[in-house]
Amino acid sequence: MFEPSYLSLHKSGVLAQRAELLNSMLSDCRICPKDCRINRLNNEIAACYSGLKPVVSSYCIHYGEEPFLSGDKESGNDNGVGNIFFGNCNLRCVYCQNYEISQNHKTEIKNEVTVERLAGIMIELQFKKVNAIGFVSPTHFVPQIVEAVNIAASNGLNLPLIYNTNSYDSPEVLRLLDGIIDIYLPDLKYSEDEYGYSYSKIKNYVSHSRDSVREMYRQTGSGLITENGLLKRGLIVRHLILPNDIAGSYETLKFISELDNKISLSLMSQYYPVHKALSVDLLSRNISEREYERVFEWMDELNLENGFFQEFESQNYYRPDFIDRAEPFKR
Ligand code: SF4
Known about the structure:
It contains 13 helices and 10 strands. By secondary structure, it is an alpha/beta fold. The protein has one domain: Aldolase class I (TIM Barrel, Alpha-Beta Barrel), CATH 3.20.20.70. It is globular. Iron/sulfur cluster (SF4) is lined by residues 29-32, 34-36, 38, 46-48, 50, 90, 140.
């Protein structure tokens, strides 16, 4: 049986040391590239509106992730991912589908929990037999998450951990997640900083997000480790295609292809305008089928071998061949 590597870090005490080190970074917060330098240990808040306690807006079993995360009926492993949605965010995307929890900090404060409760949620989801635990928008709460994983590991947590991020992460912080996170799921949102600022209020998104993906790749490589058709360790880069090519898809795919053309890429077609995007001309419509196909063609042109893609209408994922070619787990 596959054993997540955080369990050995837990036994050796390294996980506790990492949690301590990460917690100390909250006193002069540089947990993400916003580099606010405020003392979150004293509950000071800045760009992500988050103090010391983690904010858990909701948690649930999610069946719509990529096929070898959620599982599929054909393989009989469709138990879903136990997703934990963190409130607040370091980005302010005008089209955020979760804007009610990511940009509603006055309401979200009521969802603050202790790290012990966060650990309890992981155990509760494991008890429901999910395939993995997914941390959704985890960036601004990494120290609290690591502390909670350490507690949960003492209480029997043994599922792979997924880090599902907007990629505006600090490489220094990601290095401290080496051996703790099993599966990285970064979204690469833009290829032009100007759009990152206009539509997500973030500076230098392109270089920061690419540095983050490079660090994730350093940890996992492009190989995927599976067991019984489920991903246990690896990197899947996501890319949400935006209308009018606001996401700069060609350049994003080119970056991935130059890093390693065997990196798994998940092309997402589900954009629809919500929140402030309804009044932004360039973002106020769904993407067209042609826009999706064109990115798909670029994937081929750039020789990206391992793509997940969706049926345009249903947004169901096709099961790509490379899943069956992924390396089975060997002790
Ligand atoms: S985690 Fe929050 S407070 Fe810390 S640097 Fe990022 S945005 Fe600023």
